[in-house]
Specification:
CATH topology of the largest domain: Mannitol-specific EII, Chain A
Number of strands: 16
CATH architecture of the largest domain: 3-Layer(aba) Sandwich
Keywords: Activator, Repeat, Transcription, Transcription regulation
Radius of gyration: 30 Å
Strand order of the largest sheet: 10-13-16-12-11
Strand content: 5-15%
Pfam families: HTH_11 (PF08279), Mga (PF05043), PRD (PF00874), PTS_EIIA_2 (PF00359)
Helix content: 55-70%
Protein name: PRD domain-containing protein
Mean pLDDT: 79
Low-confidence stretches: 155-170, 336-340
Largest sheet: 5 strands, mixed
GO biological process, one term: regulation of DNA-templated transcription
Distance between the termini: 30 Å
Shape: globular
Organism: Vagococcus xieshaowenii
């Protein structure tokens, strides 16, 4: 493409080249050269082409990065060219100019015509038509169908979970990661095995690091855990390592296969076995597992008896018991062994582990519990959903050249399900009366009322307009998240259960005191303290120097968090650790999802010793809550800006 050619021209020179010289070499106008430079620089955090009165100069240290970007451009890839054409046609109601597209793609006209045939067929299958008038290619059909198609494309572009893991890693290129994933997936398919996306993502990440390590001749020498070399997981590991070594040119040791098998074993399922579960596993075991799932339903209020989950759960536990009986262990070097971040899914795994211990006398290792929690987590995992930001459009030129459709399409393309365009107003006198939306996008000068957030934009929605709207949406979504979590703070914490400065030097005495106060206030039942101690005996919940004791049961009248800290002491001994802050939880079944969301966020805060110190420096309950909500605000802003 032309931008690629421009970079190559600039690379050859150690001094700036004027736009007039470049325009002659490339047979385009000086204005086009300026546009190329602007577009190239937009792809990078800092300008890679410096502009001055003497002309344009390429920063040579950025050459490889620029080449990597353009070698992966749509011009070199039919699938990407097709996607780009579809996007442009969808986003441009007035139609796209064939000559401009041809120049931007920098491919032959015959190639682009073939691409267009595929695009025409694509739209035809979706009940839409492409019309070409002179050099203008335009989409024709029902507006509702066009918007539906845009939404589907937007969702498809954001659904590749595994690829997102590697967006910023620099060990392998995107193409190399694709090759790696294809080898792994093909090997799984060849043996008719499947696994959940989370485990596949963990596996790919582990292999990215392994390949990079082996290419530097840093091979593992030993395996610390026993490996069953007759297992399907081991055979799968042999095949994967062999194919990867050929594709990425490295040598590997026996220990590499052994360690990979420890990661794979226990996390693959043969779909055929799911269909014939009753033939594979004896009825008494099926009955016992159904009993555990029914108990989970009673305690946690979650029904796991659906066929899809039930079959996977039974096969997983069956394999887990077989591995333990044979002395075969699993491992995952990529898995964070902290078990407190997601209280619900780890508690579900602990509950099952406790049931198995009581019923068949089997102790479940923590690694197995962690993978069992993943099984529950994949079933339950759902990010906290917030209502989409509602957008109202103010434009007296509505219906002029379909501008209202163009506005809506552009907004929905950029923001997808984050927004809902729910109102259009074309009469100035009706603005204040009719608009009831989170954000107003106006093509005329309009200040709005005190409670309205207004973004004034041009008729054609420029990149600058998109940035202005984005800032408003980001600010509004951050505020919603902060309000949500801060409201949970007021809901879960109560000054009645606040023990700042209470002098106590023994864990059991503190639990007894806090638990009895819960009981006195009618928050928990008489068995609460014993149930809590039973859970702590299985697996204490500790982050850094913070303890979060709780019961595996969810029978509290309401969810409450009791707080203890004492600045005058060095903390309190908790098993092998010393903690300075204790958050004792009473959990209500109906509120457990909200608490789980809350602790996902709180985990990040409590992982920072400085934040914990700020909390325990507070001399009163109001100051503690104020500081906690301040930390929540900071954490939400940090997370949102990273994931935005």
């Amino acid at each position: 493409m032309k931008e690629f050619q421009l970079v190559e021209e600039l690379r050859k020179s150690s001094i700036p080249i004027s736009s007039s010289v470049l325009s002659k070499k490339m047979a385009v106008s000086t204005r086009t050269i300026r546009n190329y430079v602007s577009r190239i620089n937009q792809h990078f955090e800092t300008p890679v082409i410096i502009s001055s009165s003497k002309g344009y100069l390429l920063k040579k240290s950025y050459y490889e990065a620029v080449m990597f970007h353009y070698l992966d451009s749509p011009a070199n890839n039919f699938v990407e060219r097709r996607k780009l054409l579809i996007r442009q046609i969808l986003l441009t109601p007035e139609g796209i100019n064939w000559d401009i597209v041809l120049e931007e793609m920098n491919v032959s006209e015959a190639t682009l015509k073939n691409d267009l045939k595929s695009v025409v067929h694509y739209f035809y299958k979706n009940e839409l038509q492409i019309k070409k008038n002179n050099n203008i290619i335009k989409l024709s059909g029902e507006e509702i169908q066009i918007r539906k198609l845009m939404k589907e494309i937007f969702e498809e572009e954001g659904c590749d979970v595994i690829s997102s893991f590697f967006k910023n890693q620099d060990l392998l290129t995107d193409d190399e990661v694709d090759i790696l994933r294809q080898i792994v997936q093909t090997t799984f398919n060849r043996r008719h095995l499947v696994t959940v996306d989370f485990v596949m993502g963990q596996l790919i990440r582990y292999l990215v690091i392994t390949i990079s390590r082996l290419q530097r001749n840093c091979s593992l020498l030993t395996t610390n855990k026993p490996v069953n070399r007759e297992s399907t997981g081991y055979q799968l590991s042999v095949e994967i390592m062999e194919e990867l070594s050929l594709a990425f040119s490295f040598k590997y040791s026996q220990a590499e296969i052994d360690n990979l098998s420890l990661l794979i074993v226990g996390n693959t399922i043969n779909p055929h076995e799911l269909r014939i579960l009753d033939e594979v596993i004896e009825p008494s075991f099926l009955q016992r597992m159904d009993g555990i799932l029914k108990d989970i339903h009673l305690v946690y209020g979650i029904n796991f008896m659906m066929d899809g989950f039930r079959s996977r759960f039974i096969l997983h536990v069956y394999g887990l018991i077989e591995r333990i009986n044979k002395g075969e262990l699993i491992d995952n070097p990529m898995l964070n062994l902290m078990n407190t971040k997601d209280l619900l899914v780890y508690d579900l795994a602990l509950y099952v582990g406790n049931k198995l211990k009581n019923e068949i006398g089997l102790d479940i290792p923590e690694e197995e519990l962690l993978f069992l929690s993943i099984l529950f987590g994949v079933f339950l995992e759902e990010e906290v959903e917030f209502e989409p930001v509602t957008i109202g459009i103010v434009s007296p030129s509505i219906s002029y050249q379909h501008l209202e459709n163009k506005l809506i399409r552009k907004l929905e393309y950029y923001y997808g399900d984050k927004i809902a365009v729910n109102q259009l107003v074309d009469a100035y006198s009706e603005i204040n009366d009719l608009l009831d939306t989170d954000i107003i996008v106006s093509t005329i000068p309009y200040k709005g009322t005190d409670h309205q957030e207004v973004v004034n934009v041009s008729l054609f929605i420029t990149e600058l307009d998109i940035q202005k709207i984005e800032k408003k949406i980001v600010a509004l979504r951050i505020k919603r998240k902060i309000d949500y979590y801060q409201e949970l703070t007021y809901q879960f914490f109560d000054e009645t259960f606040f023990y700042q400065g209470l002098s106590i030097n023994h864990k059991d005495r503190l639990i007894d005191k806090m638990g009895k106060d819960f009981l006195r206030e009618g928050i928990v039942c008489p068995s609460f303290i014993q149930s809590l101690n039973d859970k702590e005996a299985i697996s204490p919940s500790i982050i850094q120097n913070v303890a979060m004791p709780h019961s595996l049961n969810r029978d509290a009248k309401e969810t409450k968090i009791s707080v203890w800290y004492d600045c005058s002491s060095r903390g309190i001994k908790w098993e092998e650790d010393c903690v300075v802050l204790v958050l004792l939880l009473a959990i209500n079944q109906e509120q457990q999802y909200e608490l789980n969301d809350y602790f996902h966020l709180l985990f990040g805060i409590l992982s920072e010793k400085q934040a914990v110190q700020q909390l325990i420096n507070q001399k009163s309950f109001p100051l503690f809550i104020k500081k906690l909500n301040e930390l929540i605000k900071n954490e939400v802003e940090k997370i949102y800006m990273i994931n935005k």
